[in-house]
Specification:
The chain is built from 7 helices and 39 strands. The protein is α/β, with parallel strands linked by helices. Among the domains are: 99 residues, no CATH class; 83 residues, no CATH class. The protein has a 27-stranded parallel β-sheet that branches. The site of heme C (HEC) has 20 residues, from helix 4.
Length: 471
């Protein structure tokens, strides 16, 4: 395993009581030569290769670990001096000199310790436990790890299992990889894992009253769900490099969060749902400008701020898109390339929303529901060509609702109900088919004759109700 990071070297120096004072030629440790062996030798000479994959390299002559090289030290030196390896040649002079100089110093270096494998979860519950574990240079835990209390593990590089935070503050400055899941139990106050790149399975920090920090600044991929929910004291979500979430991504009930760092500008794919909900302190949302597809639902609910922007390259949402309950939202922008919403597009309960400059490419929806948007005077429908389910317009402030030219059939019901400002339904007499019911009621300024004309036009699968409209 490559351990070439400067801070680990720093630890070596500390362990040796200061920088080495030996001759300059012997400055190189295993960290410097390991990449050279990896480039030229370990494609055949590796403890992880067997049989044909070794291309004839004798068993036991393994050059992927310091211990392995030291075992074959004399032979390695002989081969290098003779220029006999790799068999096909090619080893660059500079690399050969580096290896020979290092061997001449008697192959100095510190091994990466063997993984800790206890067969049972490793429990670290006191600073003494932590310093006991971190006596070594770098620590890889095989199996589950449980951390209880305020702890720093400056040596922990990888966990091949689950990581459970069982209360307190966990400071994991060099943790890079976690193959299992990350879970929290009550009483967790902080998590700092500023180098963690990958989490194999689900990650959840939920219902933690006192959690004030969750630093996951380099997290790039999460195999399962990533859920931050009900964290009343958390003020910032830091996920600037997150690219990929295999399951759902949910940021929910985070009343103090004022910013999402980078607004997830790196996010490319979400395998499940994407939920942004319950963040009333957020000043507006502008993010996810790289996100192309969401397989499940997108739910954007109860956010602060006056603008919802971003999602500029998102083309497809497998499930529904719901934008709901935003007390201050004035404009929806973005969603410029969105072509398809498999489920319903719902915009609901945004009392200040005046309109949108969004959904300019949206052709296909499973349904469309615009409800309780009293200020939405400039609301238009997207250029739909297909609406598989219901199309509902209820309590919206728009004066004229123009039929998208390409929309001739509605798979479900068409309801235009309780729209106090609606004066016209331009183009709807060209509608050919409504699979379900057709309802135009309680629109006090829509001329009754106009409503009747629209209702008379298409073939209707269900019942027709036209009532309590205007003069
Ligand atoms: C393409 C595969 C391959 C690569 C790459 C390779 N070797 Fe080998 N190595 C062999 C084979 C095959 C043998 C056994 C045949 C031989 O001895 O010539 C061998 C034998 C050896 C031996 C054992 C010699 C002995 O008789 O004890 C040493 C030591 C060795 N290689 C060192 C190296 C070093 C150092 C490198 C990188 C600079 C390297 N090899 C790269 C295939 C490889």
């Amino acid at each position: 395993m490559a351990r070439t990071r400067p801070e680990l070297l720093a630890l070596v120096f500390l362990a040796c009581g200061g920088p080495p004072t030996s001759a300059p030629a012997c400055d190189d440790g295993w960290e410097e030569v390991e990449p050279v062996f990896r480039t030229w030798c370990t494609s055949c000479h590796s403890s992880e290769l067997e049989g044909d994959l070794r291309y004839g390299a004798p068993p036991g002559v393994d050059l992927d670990t310091l211990a392995g090289v030291r075992r074959s030290q004399a032979g390695v030196r002989a081969m290098l001096e003779a220029g006999a390896m790799p068999p096909a040649g090619g080893l660059e002079d500079a690399d050969r000199d580096t290896l020979l100089a290092w061997l001449a110093c008697d192959a100095p270096g510190t091994s990466v310790p063997a993984p800790l494998d206890c067969g049972v979860p490793t429990v670290v519950s006191a600073p003494e436990d932590a310093s006991g574990l971190c006596g070594e240079l770098a620590l890889v835990v095989e199996g589950d790890l449980r951390l209880q209390g305020d702890l720093s593990l400056p040596c922990l590089c990888e966990v091949h299992g689950d990581l459970v935070l069982a209360g307190g503050w966990a400071d994991l400055p060099v943790l890079e990889r976690l193959t299992g899941s990350l879970r929290s139990e009550v009483g967790v106050t902080g998590l700092s894992a500023p180098r963690l790149v990958e989490i194999g399975r689900d990650t959840s920090l939920t219902s933690l009253t006192d959690l004030t920090e969750a630093d996951l600044a380099t997290l790039a991929s999460v195999g399962g769900d990533l859920v931050l929910r009900d964290l009343p004291a958390l003020e910032e979500v830091r996920l600037p490099l997150l690219r990929e979430v295999g399951g759902s991504l949910a940021l929910e009930d985070l009343p103090s969060v004022r910013a999402i760092d980078g607004e997830g500008y790196a996010l490319r794919t979400v395998g499940g749902d994407l939920v942004l909900s319950g963040m009333p302190s957020l000043g507006g949302f502008y993010g996810f400008g790289q996100l192309q597809q969401v397989a499940g639902d997108v739910v954007i609910e109860e956010l602060g701020g006056t603008r919802l922007d971003g999602f500029t390259v998102l083309t497809r949402i497998g499930g529904s898109l719901t934008i709901a309950r935003h007390p201050r939202l004035v404009a929806v922008d973005g969603f410029d390339l969105l072509e398809e919403v498999g489920g319903e597009l719902v915009v609901r309960e945004a009392p200040s929303l005046q309109g949108h400059d969004a959904f300019a490419s949206l052709r296909r929806v499973g349904g469309l529901r615009l409800e309780v948007l009293p200020a939405a005077v400039s609301l238009g429908l997207p250029p739909l060509e297909s609406c598989a389910g219901d199309l509902v317009l209820r309590r919206v402030g728009v004066g004229d609702l123009v039929r998208p030219e390409g929309l001739t059939r509605i798979g479900g019901s068409l309801s235009v109900v309780d729209d106090p400002a609606l004066e016209a339904l331009t183009g709807w007499t060209a509608l050919e088919e409504v699979g379900g019911d057709l309802r135009i009621t309680d629109c006090p300024v829509l001329p009754a004759s106009a409503a009747e004309a629209v209702a008379a036009a298409p073939a209707v699968g269900g019942t027709v109700e036209v009532a309590r409209n205007g003069p």
